[in-house]
Design goal:
This protein is mainly beta. It has one helix at 13-41, and strands at 44-52, 58-63, 67-72, 77-85, 91-97, 100-106, 115-123, 127-132, 137-140, 146-150, 155-158, 164-168, 173-176, 182-186, 191-196, 200-205, 210-214, 220-225, 230-235, 242-247, 252-255, 265-270, 275-280. It has a 12-stranded mixed beta sheet, with no helix packed on it. The protein has an 11-stranded mixed beta sheet with strand order 5-6-2-8-10-12-14-16-18-22-20, with no helix packed on it. The longest helix has 29 residues, at 13-41.
Amino acid sequence: MSEIGTRSRTLSRAQKVLLAVGGVAAFVLIAGAAWTLVNLFGQTTYQRDLTLTPTAGRLRIDTTGAITIKPGSGPEVRVHETVRYGLRRPRLAETSTPDGLVLHAGCDWLTPNCSIDAVVTVPAELTVDARSSGGDITVSGLTGAVQLDSSGGGITVSGLTGPAQLHSSGGGITATGLAGAVQLDSSGGGVRATGLRATQVEARSSGGDVVLAFDTAPDRVVADSSGGGVRIGLPRVEGGYSVNADSSGGGTHTDVPTDPQSQRQIEAHSSGGDVRLETTG
């Protein structure tokens, strides 16, 4: 008769560490899922309306949610907010400073299902600086300087006649009818601007194509994409354009009148696709 013995196995130090790390990771995942469910079932939604007096001709908005800004007929700033949150109420504040009116709306860290969407009506000439970490930004019809920054969505603008600086790391940029000096920069998607009447435009993307279409001849254009191609539509103009165009990711096609001595300068570069300059109109 044979006797079969059992031998216990001792875990190595590395195996013990792996088991401990795995246990902590599992606990964090389970706790996070439970926290999300608790916030979801305990969610509150309400709306509020504000009428505010701007100071120093400037408005700054910093929020966790979508922002829509449009011109109004009066001198006041009108705000309509939709607030959503779970267990922790978000922080909402309106402050008048010597540098302008400031609207701040933020959610606590690790608070899911929390957002503050704002529709803001402003005097058209007001200088606007808006930042969102949780949604898209949409702005139309303003004549003052505009600076927008979104890390939670894309940016859409139309009919802006003042200087515009737009940056998005959360989506693409779409613009129509811009007339002031323009800077467009997206790392979250492509850049597309049409109906341009601006004399100076800079457009850069590391997340997609850069597409620009001009209604009037610009003085200076810089377009650069490392995430796609570059396509620029330019009206025919006497004296043509001074063009510097190249691509390391595709071909280069120039179908506009050129003159190295022209004061109208076009720079177009791509490492992600073709570069095309075309005549419009």
